[in-house]
């Protein structure tokens, strides 16, 4: 029901509905369209657009299909937060997302050097990605300092793989822009393709899991989707390099 293509087609307001539905799946099937709109902080028109993008004629059909979806995919015991992760894996378990990964691998293979970029938690994953790619035979570096100088020499024939949950961090946006200005291709891995980083990048991979912060400051969003994407790219890369 929640395919990668369908989720990718949602705008920012429709994503608010999606995030509410995923986090409150047991409540949603009993809510009226007005109640869902109010709870998600959007209009009923937005909820209807959301339903249509999921191939439902209206809200009544959405509730029916969503109820069937839950019955078919209900885990025996789900921990808090598991629903978002399980929804991610269901959304990418298809040929369409696999083709996106294949296109990304072709871009990686065409680049002479790979530079992983990230800050904070994404910086730690940038280091992991560089090591994973190097392990499979594609030497890569990582930069976790967004103020690191970008030069023509380092950007020549290179690909910067920029990791960011929100895709809106000013320092990362500035850093990614520096790579673009030096004619370096940019691939972004973000939570949503409507972010500024995704729009700036030459190619984007999105994972559609809602961002979670403590006190509105400290990001504790799960990074399992990012690790899955990096490892999937690495394994596909290994097969093509063999």
Radius of gyration, in angstroms, nearest whole number: 19 Å
Fraction of helical residues: 55-70%
The CATH class of the largest domain, by name, is Alpha Beta
Principal-axes shape call: elongated
Overall pLDDT, averaged?
Answer: 89
Fold-level CATH name of the largest domain: Rossmann fold
Number of self-contained structural domains = 2
Low-confidence stretches: 76-80
Biggest pleated-sheet summary? 5 strands, parallel
Strand order of the largest sheet: 2-1-3-4-5
> What is the H/E string?
HHHHHHHHEHEHEHEHEEEH
Task: Please count the helical segments.
Answer: 13
Structural class based on helices, strands and sheet pairing: alpha/beta
Task: Report the CATH superfamily of the largest domain.
Answer: Glucose-6-phosphate isomerase like protein, domain 1
Q: What oligomeric assembly is this protein in? A: single chain
| Intertermini distance | 36 Å
* Strand percentage: 5-15%
The beta-strand count equals 7
CATH architecture verdict of the largest domain? 3-Layer(aba) Sandwich
Keywords: DNA-binding, Transcription, Transcription regulation
GO biological process, one term: carbohydrate derivative metabolic process
GO molecular function: carbohydrate derivative binding; DNA binding; DNA-binding transcription factor activity
Protein name: MurR/RpiR family transcriptional regulator
What do these coordinates show?
By secondary structure, the protein is of the alpha/beta class. It has two domains: 4-74, Winged helix-like DNA-binding domain superfamily/Winged helix DNA-binding domain (Arc Repressor Mutant, subunit A), CATH 1.10.10; 95-241, Rossmann fold (3-Layer(aba) Sandwich), CATH 3.40.50.10490. Helices cover 55% and strands 12% of the residues. It has a five-stranded parallel sheet, sandwiched between helices. Helix 11 links the parallel strand 3 (158-163) and strand 4 (185-190). The chain is elongated, with a radius of gyration of 19 Å. This is MurR/RpiR family transcriptional regulator. It comes from Raoultella planticola (Klebsiella planticola). Residues 1-73 form the HTH rpiR-type domain. Residues 104-240 form the SIS domain.
């Amino acid at each position: 029901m929640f395919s990668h293509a369908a989720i990718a087609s949602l705008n920012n307001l429709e994503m608010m509905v999606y995030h509410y539905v995923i986090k409150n799946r047991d409540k949603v099937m009993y809510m009226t369209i007005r109640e869902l709109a109010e709870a998600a902080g959007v209009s009923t028109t937005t909820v209807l657009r959301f339903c249509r993008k999921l191939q439902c004629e209206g809200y009544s059909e959405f509730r029916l299909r969503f109820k069937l979806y839950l019955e078919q995919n209900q885990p025996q015991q789900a921990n808090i937060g598991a629903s978002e992760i399980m929804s991610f894996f269901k959304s990418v378990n298809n040929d369409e997302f696999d083709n996106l990964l294949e296109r990304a691998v072709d871009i990686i293979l065409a680049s002479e050097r790979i530079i992983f970029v990230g800050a904070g938690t994404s910086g730690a994953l940038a280091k992991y990605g560089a090591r994973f790619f190097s392990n499979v035979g594609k030497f890569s570096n990582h930069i976790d300092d967004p103020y690191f100088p970008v030069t023509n020499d380092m950007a020549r024939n290179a690909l910067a793989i920029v990791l960011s949950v929100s895709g809106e961090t000013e320092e990362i946006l500035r850093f990614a822009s520096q790579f673009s200005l030096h004619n370096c291709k940019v691939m972004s891995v973000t939570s949503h393709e409507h972010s500024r980083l995704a729009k700036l990048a030459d190619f984007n991979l999105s994972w559609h899991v809602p961002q979670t912060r403590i006190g509105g400051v400290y990001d504790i969003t799960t990074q399992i989707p990012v690790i899955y994407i990096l490892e999937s790219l690495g394994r596909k890369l290994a097969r093509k390099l063999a």
